[in-house]
Design goal:
By secondary structure, the chain is mostly helical. The chain has 3 domains: 129 residues, no CATH class; 234 residues, no CATH class; 94 residues, no CATH class. The chain contains 23 helices and 5 strands. It has a 5-stranded parallel β-sheet with strand order 3-2-1-4-5, with helices on both faces. α18 links the parallel β4 and β5. α7 packs across α9. The longest helix has 29 residues. The chain is globular and about 65 Å long. It starts with a helix and ends with a helix.
């Protein structure tokens, strides 16, 4: 125990040293280095504590109380920075850059610390909220049947250009499959992903294409469209694609996507099954044993916040199909609702506010499995030890986090309407100006947070445009 404690202390010290070095590299000096180091360490602990709370909600069957979809590091940083004195605008911006590096490209020491923190936090929450699950994990084979959600697939697609070791969602699925899980891409989900990509293509054509020569990496990072962010990352930062058409054709024929054709959807289906090892499930197989009237009733409840009818129908079908698939497979609960094989793997949370009656009618057993729970199982289960070490070592320490808070589509469109104002500037100067303006936007969010002001009430597009015009004048 003493030896282990010494190792823990040494690891924490080495991690602080690594964070401080990142801070210096990013421009911090003097006391700023210590401030950034303290704030970043607080964010790391806060992040994994929040992940533990999500797990606890799952263990206690209180998923309806979970309001977190993605963990946004910028939001976690705001909370940590408000607890520390003398955090300057420069230190705040540096801290966000440092955290991005730690989460996406950790050093060996940082990676070990993140894995240790993740595993320890998840284990402690499991012991506290449902200690018998440790025995359950030890006995369970890991042979889940996971109906993969559209949100999970889109996140996996967005990881295409990342180094293998940093493809967190992709690697989670890969390790799960190696442990015996069956990953299922159902027809409604493939349709939803294809529709999402078609909508992204229209968004790019209508708002980004004409302004593309003036869009910088900093500005692109503010887009609320994950595949548009992926495209500009691949083009501007790592030079992996030459243009939008070539980017799209890595997944599906461009013209077929633009036409929203059935052939294009079939191409996407084939790509997903080939790359991620999904098994395809036609709609009629998914709907087997499902009461159609129950789906229609639930879909009506799920049409909130202008949600499209087809998406509400798909979500309702996925929910009811999980219970039907369990019944058809005669799945039995080993312990308190756990032990069932079939789950819908998704980070979707909003619909949980409307599915309480459905869950209650099925013994209060959830139909959703959050990726955090799957990660917890794979981290603790002895079955994972039997997996090829090359695959096992890909197991991530977090899933689905988001570094920055993105602009709404309306605000992004407004900014894109102004970018040509800076067309005469050299590329490097334009990048610096836009980066400074985006950093100011993040700082303003912190100040509004500390003053308990509504973050959604600010016209962030006007704030960015104003900042750009005021930086050394235009």
């Amino acid at each position: 125990m003493a030896e282990e404690s010494i190792k823990e202390i040494s690891l924490r010290s080495d991690t602080r040293t690594s964070i401080a070095e990142r801070a210096r590299t990013a421009g911090a000096s003097g006391s700023e280095v210590d401030i950034v180091t303290v704030v970043c360490e607080k964010v790391l602990y806060r992040h994994f504590h929040e992940q533990g709370l999500i797990l606890a909600a799952f263990l206690e069957k209180q998923l309806t109380h979970v309001t977190i979809s993605d963990q946004i590091v910028e939001e976690e940083l705001r909370g940590a920075a408000s607890d520390v004195n003398d955090v300057s605008k420069a230190a705040y911006g540096i801290a966000l850059k440092v955290l991005q590096g730690i989460f996406y490209t950790p050093t060996e020491v940082e990676n070990e610390f993140l894995h240790r923190l993740s595993k320890t936090t998840l284990l402690l929450f499991t012991l506290k909220h449902n200690p018998r699950l440790i025995e359950y994990f030890n006995k369970m084979s890991g042979r889940f049947r996971l109906l993969i959600g559209a949100d999970i697939i889109v996140k996996a697609l967005a990881e295409t250009f990342l180094p293998e070791e940093h493809k967190h969602v992709t690697n989670l699925l890969k390790v799960a499959r190696a442990c015996g899980a069956t990953l299922i891409a159902s027809e409604p989900v493939v349709e939803e992903v294809f529709t999402h990509m078609h909508a992204t293509q229209l968004e790019f054509r209508n708002y980004y294409a004409s302004q593309e020569p003036y869009i910088t990496a900093a500005l692109a990072s503010q887009s609320d469209r994950i595949l548009i962010r992926t495209y500009f990352y691949a083009k501007l930062l790592i030079n992996k694609v030459k243009g939008w058409r070539g980017f799209i054709e890595m997944f599906v024929d461009f013209d077929q996507l633009a036409a929203a054709s059935g052939r294009g959807q079939a191409q996407l289906q084939a790509y997903l099954c080939k790359v991620y090892g999904f098994e395809y499930m036609p709609r009629e197989d998914l709907a087997r044993g499902v009461d159609g009237e129950s789906v229609r009733d639930l879909a009506a409840k799920l049409q909130y916040d202008d949600k499209k009818e087809v998406l509400a129908q798909n979500d309702a079908l996925m929910c009811m199909a999980v219970y039907a698939q369990r019944a058809l497979g005669r799945e039995a609960m080993l312990y308190d609702g756990f032990g069932l094989r079939t789950w819908w793997l998704t980070k979707e949370t909003a619909l949980l506010q409307h599915t309480g009656a459905v869950v209650a009618a099925h013994g209060n057993v959830p139909f959703i499995m959050r990726p955090e729970f799957l990660l917890n199982f794979l981290s603790i289960s002895p079955q994972t030890a039997d997996v090829d070490p090359v695959v096992r070592d890909l197991l991530p320490n977090h899933v689905g986090l988001q570094i920055g808070q993105h602009l709404s589509a309306t605000h992004m469109h407004k900014i894109l309407g102004h970018v040509s104002e800076w067309s005469d500037l050299p590329d490097s100067r334009r990048e610096v100006k836009i980066t400074d303006a985006v950093d100011k936007l993040k700082w303003d969010r912190l100040k509004r947070y500390e003053a308990n002001l509504d973050l959604k009430g600010e016209d962030e597009a006007d704030a960015v445009v104003s900042a750009l015009r005021n930086i050394n004048g235009l």
